[in-house]
Protein 1
Amino acid sequence: MHILILGAAGMVGRKLLDRLVKDGSLGGETISRLTLHDVVPPEAPAGTTIPVSLSASDFSDPGEAERLVAGRPDVIFHLAAIVSGEAEADFDKGYRINLDGTRRLYDAVRAIGEGYKPRFVFTSSVAVFGAPMPDPIPDEYLTAPLTSYGTQKAIGELLLSDYSRRGIFDGVGIRLPTICVRPGKPNKAASGFFSGIIREPLAGQEAVLPVSDQVRHWHASPRSAVGFLLHAATIDTKRLGDRRNLTMPGVGATVAEQIEALRRAAGDSAVARIRREPDPTIERIVSGWPRTFDARRALELGFKAEPDFDAIVRAHIEDELGGKVPA
Amino acid sequence: MHILILGAAGMVGRKLLDRLVKDGSLGGETISRLTLHDVVPPEAPAGTTIPVSLSASDFSDPGEAERLVAGRPDVIFHLAAIVSGEAEADFDKGYRINLDGTRRLYDAVRAIGEGYKPRFVFTSSVAVFGAPMPDPIPDEYLTAPLTSYGTQKAIGELLLSDYSRRGIFDGVGIRLPTICVRPGKPNKAASGFFSGIIREPLAGQEAVLPVSDQVRHWHASPRSAVGFLLHAATIDTKRLGDRRNLTMPGVGATVAEQIEALRRAAGDSAVARIRREPDPTIERIVSGWPRTFDARRALELGFKAEPDFDAIVRAHIEDELGGKVPA
């Protein structure tokens, strides 16, 4: 089985790669080749005998999509995107990468023809939803995004369904929750604090909480995100019918609930490292985000997230801290 | 006020034009110029002193969108599209005209800049919805089309909202019900019988009914369709917020109710001209269509449809038959 990962240098891409290399197979089939692509050169995985091709380019450039699928990968994981803030700041770049690039990939698969019909896993986002929204948001709720990023993802979903319906590829679109706890350094994303208030205290560092304790949001661990991708790559898509895009399950937790989970895992001293510093701008941005989902279809189809925020904290401690909670 | 109509040679386009010429104004502003475009040469309206420019081309050709908006029309009515059956049969043509062409128009407006911000009225379709669907379909229901045409319209809607949110133009997307009674000759569209079973008997002709009496569908007269377009062109869009696409109101009627309305208007002899000839193919196609809508937002925003199917029959008799019901 030949697997192509677009966006292989990103956090989720690297974790997916690690898992594929560790497993050596996907859905019972041995992985015979990995093609890793990103706009920056992706790192080759260590300790594997699977042949790996690395490539770095702007996949929306003319000819790139064709080049990337020319090797006829059996499974394509499309994780590449301009993130929300940049797609909002740079209209042309966002539409070029997130919409035109994605469509070029779809069309490159179509252009091959000759019975070539890969599994195409597209990472979408809960940003396809926009206020006003019910809480929880059901699977049949209107996708009415309030950002260009969300618009581009919603269009990617529509095309994925139509191309799948027409037999061009076998697509599954998954709307990822906010990934928490993101490993690594704090970043400037408006959502950064959701991870920061767990990650930094566990690392003995101070974290800033810019919003109220009552803010509720939808989370899944990096480990669950990888699980979603693998399940999307292997599920019998007959079970999906024509609706190829699924809101992934997650944990709906308030900031207060996040903090209590941190306390249970690492005690009062960890919680004491969270400094409240209200930021009206971030508070306002976050207030427009979806809170929780009734992700019934995905659950029925076997997608699995953590049962509660404690499990998300535990996953971080196991996967990033070697299972050890610092004193 | 300069008005551009794309798709001006179509049935709805011609009726819109007739109304604009008759009124001489739109939203209280005198119409100073009309630009009419279609893939076939549109007819110049008779009896008007308004300067009219006519043009015929494929608006998705490179440079055409820019040419069409170069005169900076204040209102753009975009009615041009490849219809459902053709978009399904010809993948490339459907995407080229319905998606790329529409996006080129949007981008041509953006390219002008300099504060140019026209009202952009986009005709969408209830084909953005696909089974399974509730009955009636609420305004917040997921757009999950089951045709390439519906996909292309749903994408046009998403782009319309995003471009409007970003201040590129002031867009309103309207999802038209099935237009009934369509004047003219019977056509081969699967939906043709909805009009045929009224139009042909009123013209003393036999009509074929290929589906069960219990089939329910969503209708509005050509007169209402023009009303929707005019209201979309003049409404205060602050009232719409960021959700720029609206399901238009209509009349949900079963075929049996249509037939009873015909009987009330023209008697048993007219009804006797309907010949039942079940067609499993058409029955199957129609069974996948939406039935009725709870078009609450559009009604609250002042869009008006007929109150019942009798009014739709009456509109046809008044507008197409000079008010006379044949004996």
Protein 2
Amino acid sequence: MEHTWRCAITVADLGEFGIIARIVGRLPQSPTVLLGPGDDAAVLAAPGGRVVVTTDLLLEGRHFRRDWSSAYDIGRKAAAQNLADIAAMGASPTALFVGLGLPGDLPVEWLDGLTDGFRDECAPVGASVAGGDISRSEQVVLGVTALGTLDDRPPVTRAGARPGDVVALTGRVGHAAAGLALLQAGLPEAFPELSGAHRRPMPPYARGPEAAALGATAMADVSDGLVQDVGHIASSSGVLVEMDADAFPVPASLAAAGERLGEDPLEWMLTGGDDHALVAAFPSTAVLPSEWLIVGRVVEGEGVQVRGHAGAQGGWDHFR
Amino acid sequence: MEHTWRCAITVADLGEFGIIARIVGRLPQSPTVLLGPGDDAAVLAAPGGRVVVTTDLLLEGRHFRRDWSSAYDIGRKAAAQNLADIAAMGASPTALFVGLGLPGDLPVEWLDGLTDGFRDECAPVGASVAGGDISRSEQVVLGVTALGTLDDRPPVTRAGARPGDVVALTGRVGHAAAGLALLQAGLPEAFPELSGAHRRPMPPYARGPEAAALGATAMADVSDGLVQDVGHIASSSGVLVEMDADAFPVPASLAAAGERLGEDPLEWMLTGGDDHALVAAFPSTAVLPSEWLIVGRVVEGEGVQVRGHAGAQGGWDHFR
């Protein structure tokens, strides 16, 4: 006679509708959600008669690792990278929709952590997870869609930068890249602030609508690397962006991690993605709050130049 | 000296930004799309100040097979199942967002077919693919989000059916299930209409807003199986739905395929998903166009009963 010992309840034990009930039970809904989870589709308020939408696909092993990040941090990060795209339009996030692919043997506790991570990244910005979909999958798959509202503002695209504008940055750059390098080197505990930055970005959400109000002519979130994302602004706007390596003060933690790993911390700052900073062009007359660091200027021409730094031509391409 | 022969251009040859450019170049945008692909997020018009949203995750091997369906049909089906969820709220679809996970060795022609399938399923309903995301993946992964507009109508949820209402169906049921059974039996050519129904559903999109205008009290799309989806209406509304097996005329193709495979065609019609018919409750006074087939009635109680049929308690659970 064989005894089966179960150490943890799995998502397969719950079944599809049990999983949905469990997730929905942990998710408060924001006032924007007129009809939440449980029907064929959700209904959201769209003030001003427009809605901002972005989507990302996150795959286990490629975008996150369960042995490197907790379920809670994976949820926060998946939410953050989509909410940051909304902020980068000058908009305020309102809701997330999450398609979940889950292995049957996934412990329910892991699913709870993921759900709570989504919930807690959404709550401070006034958003909530308003719907989703569940499938069985070999590995964890997250299809995340974020919606947001511009109220009555025009969107800030990548295409409006003009010669004479200044280029300014808000939020961290290089931290997540350094954290990833430390995790890859097996040294996550050496600089917990940096490995933590890889696991859970802290996008400056409120700075997006602030930039719009300050008259930003173009904006992007830094997800592929600063030089590459500024390059998107440059190509969309038909301009050249000149940045100065001297404009970037290297934080002590990045300098120390760079020394430990034999890497150039400025390279992390200029080419590392995943911190989800915001970079924007402003008229030179704009008076920017201290959270915005001026790192360059817009001139006639095309592309991006970084003076005083030999590298920094790279960035992230998912297929290279 | 080694020679490498390449028979087809792959998505890895194009790279991430080449893939995006190729996809976007094949996608016309509908007037609802105020800002389309190419920025951090898209901006859509949301007439009436509300937006309807649904999302699905589709995984190769679980939701589709590349050896059973063409890329074009996979694109159409992935679009259709999301657009049908919008119609089931009484809304009109406006846009799709597609997160794509693609193997590096995928031929570009396959990607083109997929893109064209999405495009062609969207165009007749006035929607377009307004944004997306690309990642490398071991197998094809599709994270699809659909948006729609109610204009000034209230949404038709699953929760409003009342005793005395009639229950009516529009669109095909059982065809996709029969087609899947034929594919699994290695007989796709025996009934091409049915294997075709599995590959490409034909949801009756326009019937969704029509049902809302006719005063539908509750509605759902049939994706898990008619009995199960009517069960969602019953439980959300707190009522019992009685259906009659006699109400369902069995099409000749289903009868013939059932005989060939030794299956009960009525079982396919009552429990098979993936045709994306619409089922709705209406006041008994509603005058329904001939496309709506009355299949049951709403009474006090709970659950679903099918008179004259012994089976039909099943349906689809992604984790069973």
